[in-house]
Fold DUF488 domain-containing protein.
Amino acid sequence: MAFDIAVKRVYEAPAKADGQRVLVDRIWPRGIAKKDAALALWLKDIAPSDELRKWFGHEPERWAEFQKRYRAELDANREAVAQLQGLLREGKVTLVYGAHDEMHNNAVALAEYLREA
């Protein structure tokens, strides 16, 4: 079963086409009110560990290694992954994140992981 997954910065306006919006960061994004984020869920537990997040630092040269380490964390975090997969079975889910880098962030890595699962 192919999941309908999108990835979007939390600072972009919510849209009906987003489906259920799930924040996948451990830390709440600066400058966004909870009501403006229009979230179905804030799934902190699926975010990378603080240690991995700090090590990565959104440095593109660390991207491949970050993905490898984050996948290992996701493999060990079956409960949070299953929760997200449950939402995906209901319809489209947009993974929302706060990072500036739109190509190298945990939401992009998570979407890829879920598509391959």
